[in-house]
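Example record

One chain of 165 residues, shown exactly as stored in the release files.
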Amino acid sequence: MPFRNFLYSGERLFPIEKNDSERAFRAWINNGTSVDRVVSVSRDSSFNDQAYLFEFGFLDKKQFFKTKSESFYKDIQIKPNSGFNSFFEKIDSLDLINYTNQDSFNIAIDHQPFSIYVIEVKVNNKYNQFSFRTHFPNNRMKDGNKYEEIERLLFQEFKYNFYMK
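Predicted structure tokens for this chain:
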């Protein structure tokens, strides 16, 4: 997967295409900070509904005369704010199985940070993976922008901390 921080953790997340879940959603999130995130939500007949947030990267630890960078890894069992049924209904309504990679992205000249998302979705035996970028923090999300709708959904459903290096 595309994020540099992931190589330093001992865990490996295989593409959801390879798991046995009937339904699955995974978002690989890099908001331009030193910590990357993966939100993974799945539903299957054996393990029912599951959701996890993985965070990995580096955090600076301030000491008296210097700053020390330490590797960081967390995996947390989470639940969508609206519940699993509603979350999967929202995923279905976005029709993510038919999305493609973002065609273009205008990088701001004023060095505004941006986020990179890689989305994986699996419904029964259909699988799709695509990527897109958004400006971060994005205070002016536009309705109708399909990629910003995914970002908005992630912000609404899953609360996670933003660690700045």
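Notes: Strands lie at 23-30, 35-44, 48-62, 67-77, 114-123, 126-135.
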